[in-house]
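Quick one - first record:
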Amino acid sequence: MNDLLGKKLLVLGGTLSTYDVVRTAKEMGIYVVVTDYLKEGISKQEADETAYVSTNDMEKLEKLIEDKGISGVFTGASEFNIRNMIMLCSRTGLPCYLNLEQWDTFSNKRKFKEICKKYNIPVVPEYDLDNEGETHLVYPVIVKPEDSYSGHGISICSNKKEFDAAVKKAKKWSKIGKVIIEKYVEGNNVEVYYLIQNGKIMLLTASDRYTDNNQNGSPVPTAFYHPSKFLDEYMKTTHPKVCRMFEDIGVRNGVFFMESFLVNGTFMFYEMGFRLNATMEYHFVEHFNGFSPLKMMIRYALTGDMGADQEKNNNPHFSGKACEIALLLRPGTIHTVDGMDIIKSKDSVIHCIQFYEEGDCLEETGSLDQNFARIKVVAKTEEELEKEIEEIYRIISVKDTKGNEMLIKSR
């Protein structure tokens, strides 16, 4: 018996960031109401019902919850809407996997790194300009907003001129007007993904993250390979420390991811997200291990419980190989898109989400806004996976109004 059948879920945000949440909730038999102030939105098209209440208008949202008999509130990877979700759940007494203090701590890059240090977890070194001054910088450095996400406002700098421009850019994207200046680290980029269920902290998977560092001075991801070739090393050296840190924090349920560089045998973290990730790695977890962290999070939002214990089913090593391809675009207006239907029909492709359509325009590079699509590919072996990826790059084409290829093809 489906105990969620007919329950009503309020989803904050009607754009593509919640599309997977809305579709998954509906597959679970849940009645979905999507709200934001926009008249249109792809997630609104999928919802059972739409509302036009802004996601930060708490009083109107509370009335919407009461009028519609809403049982839970959830959202996608938008940090703006996650904060609104936490506040709304606190005001209405609905389940939420973390509180505002925890969210404000871990969504801030500097605060996150300070907590890591307390648990002897290495982090990427920073420059404190208040004490040292910019003359002490050793280039290259990377400049980031202290509190942004999706890669906005990040720059790699090789000299003072680039640095000055980068600081202005980062402050523009920071809601609190603060920046972080880090040593530019060259190493293997490893991202780890966790689930917490009833206090049990499980490493779901780890990926080797590849970036294009020439996009308007910012590193933008192009591929995530699962499981990471450094998974065993991470589990031996760093995973126990991360578990201790989150056990002490006291979060009982939820999902989070952490990003690191592996340098000379040391995993050095630089930021995290206490939320669903734009990579949607939960599709790989469901494919290989048979359970969906996304479905567990939706269930928690409605009931305050994640459901059946999945610790025995969890295997971060997987039984095959996987890759999320993040296709990047050059600036321009899309005139034609070819090959996506063929790609979506391939047996090796378990999930594909497309962010732009014909007629859409990309003006700036250097953030996740540059993603044309994210394609999840699986195979039994590494060799088979590489063949599938190469074929996808051969098939797909995105042309601008002048007939030029807009895709940045790394193959």
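second record:
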Amino acid sequence: VVHNPQSNMNNAVGAARIIDMINKGIRVGLGSDIGAGESESIFRAIADAVQVSKLYWRMKDESKKPLRFEEAFWLATRGGGEFFGHVGGFDPGCELDALVLDDGDLFLPDGLDMIQRLQRDVYLGADRGRITAKFVAGRQIL
């Protein structure tokens, strides 16, 4: 399954219960859908997936926990990458697809760990000017 949260919102078809799918063993990835969305940004898709799941949790069923940032990030990387083979991660033998982000121009409060810094960059739209390098299949393309 490829979850496109903007498409779900713009077509008013509801909120996909991604956690339920994962718990049932269904392979899920995260995508962006410019046909029914307004952005190709996977960072925007990560933020939207978390926000949609929080709305579902708060407004529809509080027994269904919302998607956490780490889970949405996994969907955007490893979850989608598994469809194509051993990609989407940094473990040995995994094909390297990666972005290098520079958050040096942002105020960095003391105590933020790597996940918190990444989360902040995703929500602030790090793909708009903070990407300093891109690697696809182990080859640097930017």
